[in-house]
Amino acid sequence: MSDPIKPVIEKIKSSPKLKSFCEINKKREKPFTESFLNKVAEAFERYGFETTKTFLLDKRQRQATKYQAEVLLEILNYLDNKVIHQNRDIGRLIIKTLNEIKPIE
């Protein structure tokens, strides 16, 4: 049985926005702030795709979270998968671990 999440992770690793964001933030130990990832992950698990998208659209308007929100909006599209729709805690886990998912060079 193949892992249904593997293609999602591969898409995330191939994301041009993620690669660019990590490159811009390469001096930082982690490109995303843990608190921001936790808030997004919690919103995703509790409320689903559309509420999380709305949350990120709002955060995109704020200077402190603008770029993180842009990348996460793209990644949210990659999470639009039958398995993740049925089990949002998988999406939550992926969002929380984005600092560990390195883009493909």
Secondary-structure blueprint of this entry?
Elements: H1 6-13, H2 16-24, H3 34-47, H4 49-59, H5 66-78, H6 82-86, H7 88-96
Helix pairs in contact: 3-4, 3-7, 4-5
Describe the structure.
- The structure is a single chain.
- The protein has 105 residues and is mainly α.
- It has one domain.
- 66% of the residues lie in helices and 0% in strands.
- It contains seven helices and no strands.
- The longest helix is centred in the middle third of the chain and has 14 residues, at 34-47.
- It is globular and about 35 Å long.
Count the E strands: 0
Unreliable residue stretches = none
Q: Largest sheet, described in full?
A: none
**Gyration radius, rounded:** 13 Å
Number of domains: 1
Assembly type: single chain
- What is the overall silhouette? globular
Instruction: Encode the helix/strand succession as letters.
Output: HHHHHHH
Q: Count the helices. How many? A: 7
Helix content: 55-70%
| Helix and strand composition category | mainly alpha
Distance between the termini: 29 Å
Report the sheet-strand fraction: under 5%
Query: Would you tell me the overall average pLDDT?
Result: 94
